[in-house]
Amino acid sequence: MQSFIKDFSTLIGQAVTIQGWAYNVRSSGSIAFLQMRDGSGFTQAVVVKSNVDEVSWAVASSATIESSMIVTGMVTKHPKQEGVYELQATQVELIQRAEEYPIGKKEHGPDFLFDNRDLYLRSKTPWAVLRIRDRVYFSIEQFFHEQGFIRFDTPIIQPTSCEDTTQLFTVNYYDTPGYLSQSGQLYGEAGIMSFGKVYDFGPVFRAEKSKTRHHLSELWMMDAEMAFFDQAMNMDLQEKMIKRIVKDLLGQCVEELKILERDTTILQRLVHEPFVRLTHAEAKKILKEENLITKETFDDTYWQDDMSTEEEIALGNKFQLPVFVQDYPAEIKSFYMKRFTDKDGVVRARCADLIAPEEGREIIGGSQREEDYELLKKEIIDRHYPLQQYEWYLNTRKYGSVMHSGFGLGLERTVRWLCGVHHVRETIPFPRLLNRMEP
Ligand code: 4AD
Ligand code: MG
Fold first, then answer.
1. CATH of the domain at 302
2. Which of 96, 131, 340, 422 lies at 20 to 30 Å from 28 by C-alpha?
3. pLDDT above 90 as % of the chain
4. What is the pTM of this model?
């Protein structure tokens, strides 16, 4: 019967058989060490020539990296390392002898690793990161169901844009132009009129020609939408969700975090502490007055502008906790956000971006939505969007309009932050970037 490396702590002293791959091999004279991985974990099989038959010894002593094999033996505790287990082999059977493996002999740059992503996936870092991705996904699904949401899938091919129109990928849809979804939000807003609270989870696309370590062309977004929620309730829910994700991560992904050598001090702290909440104006003021950014001139553009990468990173560094930045100038935000005029006469959106600390940047964008039919229609017209194609969306404001809010979480940005990896390309199995569509 097949056993799994992840269960070794419960199998000490027992004879087991694992099936997997030798990610590293070493042999000298009468002993061979097979670094084995089986999908569930990593272990070392110790093969002593005098303890195994001739065929087993031949396989073990001449194995190539990434050869697939079946190893039988007894599980033992590592003589020196606490919580580490080994397999004292009694039999080694070859499934397939791998050709010379291109990864691992020397240090490789990211281009090489991502040109060979199909193989690079087998390495420890991707193993840990992508398992954390799966855990985050699962925590979100659980959280929303506990909170009374249903999963409401939204279309990938859409006739209109949800966010900035410069970021659209166009598709030829039976000779009519269509667009790849930037976010399922507008459909979620229709969904809550039937179900109250919905979320979707799927791939979305951003065509901006951005080459930073925070941008993917194809990413996975979770959009949540809630009827009868104002912006304060919206942020409370987001905070609760992030705390839940991090708590699960710390409890369930110990091995993965260890592989990534992730310092979890801040993650542990944020589970119990309230997140920071600042307005856009307050955040800009702090950045300026405390000299947290390199900027020297602070004109109107500074006060009216979006938060730059540098500014977001500086806020995260200052507070060492997630920071909600609220009330951005409406002009730089999306058409559907509810507006208000502040005491200085600036028209602002009832919105918040959630900035993750440790250079995590913006992981969530959310807002209260404009529920008034006339105001929303006017905004669509003012932005020169094709009104006719938004008519179905405006129906949500025509037939029983209610106060509502929602948010979108970028899965890869979130996972990048949680794992502490440098580039967002590490956090999705096969990244799509400005300069990469393969493999
Ligand atoms: O802030 P965004 O653009 O918000 C929306 O699309 C809303 N319609 C969501 C909603 O309210 N339902 O995107 C949401 C999140 C960002 O905070 C970021 O984490 C991620 O999606 N994101 C990206 N991640 C990687 N690469 C990109 N190019 C991204 N663009 C957005
Ligand atoms: Mg945003």
1. 3.30.930.10
2. 96
3. 93
4. 0.96
